[in-house]
Amino acid sequence: MFAATALAMLGNYYVYDSIGPVAELLSRQLGFTDTQIGSLNAIYSLPNVFMVLVGGVLVDRFSARMVTLGTSAVCLLGAVLSALGGEFTVMVIGRLLFGLGAETFIVAVTVALAQWFAGRYFALFFALSLSLARLGSYLADRSPTFAKPLYDQGWQPPLWLAAGFAVLTLAGAIVYWAIDRREAARGTLAIAKSSDRIDWGKLLRFRVEYWYIVGLCVTFYSVIFPFRSTFAIKYFQQAHGLSLEDAGRMNSYVFLAAVFATPVFGLLVDRIGRHALLMMLGSLLLPVSFLFLKGEHVNLWLPTTLLGVSFSLVPAVLWPAVARYVAAEQLGTAYGLMTMLQNAGLTLANFYAGYLNDHGSASAANPDGYDTMLWFFGLLSLAGFIFAVLLQRHGSSQTFHNKMVM
To answer: Has domain 2-183+205-405 been given CATH number 1.20.1250.20?
Structure first.
């Protein structure tokens, strides 16, 4: 089951990150502006501002395996349409379809892991799954090197390669569906009884700790993905003079670090707990990394390393922490709501970062035009650190209160 879902996640993440490596080609060959390039990932997130919450509820209602299978098929359709498109409108529709399936797919896989591994190193197995998903992103960044003949032919062949990874996602989902169907019949999984009706009022009754985690999630991912997956390679090319291959390699190190470090942090939180403190430490590294990126003559290894450690630590702790504060029968809804708000942040951040670059006339001839984007990401990541501090302080005050009562 773990191998099947991890394989599916790897393919899914590759498709999402396939835009960054072709961003400069889209600009040069098709005349796309940075606002349009940002839109290709923003439109991925746009339907999930509304649909992923519904998807989470559907997971609770109809099972993780059914939702995983259906959404992986939608992802494949979107990836194929993106590769077919030479017009901006066609490509946007493809990314819209891919996003419509992908985020609900991720919610379903997260709930599936909780059902299979709750109480048995859930954080570790979630981190391992996330690690292999990051491997998909790493492969996307390195694709200009190992698939150089495709990139030499233009923007379209690399996107057909991404569609091939979407086939891998569907194959993994089919295997998981078959295994889960057999095991669920034996009654060995931690599956809560589904409700006959949807109680939307429960959304307002989640614990305050859950909302602090949501705040960190939204701000953290609104920085990481719009920068790393949309604009970083183009920024490294134009502001630091790297070739496409070198820029992709430099950007890939963020996820290469996550491939190996994320499981370590997952095991650590299983062993010692202290999830709030770990999230606080991890989120602090993000604004620090943008301070270094903003500096002149900076060695890109330093901010890239900080980004990699932060991106390894925070997700490994953040997502499993939700299960500490939410009842099992509401996990799908809780993850869906958090992912919904996350995608609202991703949509706005991608659009706004692209606008800032266009407004500042950011280019190889004017690398200072990227400065406002860097400040925007730096301040947003600082807000994420504040949410982590609030979570840590709330946990400390609760512990103190409990001791006083005792």
So the answer is: yes
